[in-house]
Design goal:
Blueprint (H helix, E strand, L loop, with lengths): L3 H30 L3 H25 L5 H20 L4 H28 L6 H30 L1 H22 L11 H8 L3 H21 L2 H8 L7 H23 L3 H22 L3 H17 L1 H11 L4 H28 L6 H29 L22
């Protein structure tokens, strides 16, 4: 694999760290700024809102720019946002800085996925995307715990300065390692990129992302009370168990990338079935400490097996203008985060029990399977209709040329 993928992974590591570290810093930030914990929780929402807005917007307005230049510019914006977070004098300015920090998130992964697949042979495209996402999953194992520890001992502002340094390293890596010949601007420009979002298969692929990862976040958002109230873990052990989730996510990400290069659809369906099964078993697995630890690890594995296939599915359906659609998939991921947490909360509020969010997640995973099945049916109908042949988008991905047609 090209060394340039390391530069993308470094950027992903910084983004993953700043996205998830706020959860661990909420008490420190609330105490320092003299606000309540729920008010501090709006800082998480501000970042997610930045991702949802910034992903399609920045991908669209930079459609005619060199993708190498876009990636470097996005990381500059990332550094600025985190530096402003470190020096924010109050809650309002910190909210604005967190929103700014979230703006480049989705576009970086979206454009980065396009660049990553352009640097490798067709049979390695999914693995190239999974190696970029490796930075995101490793952030949950090492980056977030280390950044949280730094914030607890040196102050939360030091955490954001540290993340800014990671961003500077990413900028240097991108400038040195990303070759110019794989980063040409989109030939279609803004109009072509926007046209890609009018395709039904693109929207079905995005819908699969929302439902599939909504299933994950319905359960993961409430995994701490499951571990303490159902499995019987002490609060002090939860951080270690969340690191196990990161280990599972990393393994699933790498496995999904390798499998998707052989069967994109098969990996996606297999991942969603596995996710539904793991979530359905959560009430049983959360009855003992050892099985709860296994459940958290398997949750990360099953969910992130689908990461690379979903990203490539969107790119396949918008093959002529993939940057905007690929970035929109990251916005869909964050919508899944918010929507899944909301649905899991509804199950808890209804009094169905502490593990009920996992069962709600299992329902969402089945819904994701249904949307993915509908997408496959649409593809088959379009391929079998001669009158529609001129409208079928030809994919640049490997499975379209061999036995893995869908």
């Amino acid at each position: 694999m090209p060394l340039a993928l390391l530069a993308l992974a470094v950027g992903a590591f910084g983004i993953g760290t700043t996205e998830f570290v706020m959860m661990g810093l909420l008490p420190d930030v609330a105490d320092d700024l003299h606000i309540s914990i729920p008010a501090a929780g709006h800082l998480v929402s501000a970042y997610a809102l930045g991702v949802v807005i910034g992903a399609p917007l920045l991908a669209a307005v930079t459609a005619r720019m060199s993708r190498r230049t876009v990636l470097i510019g996005l990381m500059v914006l990332f550094v600025v946002g985190n530096a402003l977070s470190a020096f924010a004098p109050g809650n309002g300015s910190l909210l604005a800085a967190r929103f700014l920090s979230g703006l480049p998130h989705g576009a970086f992964f979206g454009v980065g996925a396009v660049v990553a697949t352009a640097m490798v042979p067709p049979e390695r495209k999914a693995r190239s995307v999974s190696l970029m996402f490796l930075g995101l999953t490793v952030a949950n194992i090492a980056g977030v715990p280390a950044a949280t520890l730094m914030g607890q001992h040196l102050g939360w502002r030091a955490t954001f300065l540290g993340v800014s340094v990671i961003g500077l390293v990413a900028i240097a890596s991108l400038a040195l390692l990303i070759p110019h010949d794989h980063t040409q601007a989109s030939a279609t420009g803004l109009r072509g990129e926007l046209a890609a979002l009018t395709s039904l298969p693109v929207w079905l692929a995005l819908g699969t992302t929302v439902a599939g990862f909504g299933a994950l976040f319905a359960a993961y958002s409430y995994v701490t009370p499951m571990l303490t109230d159902s499995a019987g873990f002490a609060q002090a052990h939860v951080t270690l168990l969340l690191a196990l989730f990161g280990v599972g996510a990393t393994a699933g990400n790498l496995l999904g990338g390798r499998l998707a290069d052989h069967s994109l659809r098969g990996t996606l369906f297999g991942g969603l079935v596995s996710l539904a099964a793991v979530l359905a078993l959560f009430p049983l697995l959360m009855r003992a400490e050892w099985s709860a630890a296994v459940a958290v690890t398997l949750l990360g594995t099953a969910a992130f097996v689908t990461g690379s296939p979903l990203q490539l599915m969107v790119m396949e359906k918008a093959a002529a203008a993939p940057s905007l659609a690929s970035s929109a998939n990251q916005a869909a991921f964050n919508l899944a985060n918010a929507g899944g947490a909301w649905i899991g909360g509804l199950a808890l509020a209804a009094g169905f029990g502490v593990t009920s969010p996992a069962l709600a997640g299992a329902v969402l995973a089945v819904l994701g399977l249904g949307v993915a099945g509908a997408a496959r049916a649409v593809d088959r109908r379009r391929q079998s209709a001669p009158a529609s042949a001129g409208r079928v988008v030809t994919s640049h991905l490997p499975e379209e040329s061999g036995a893995l047609r869908h």
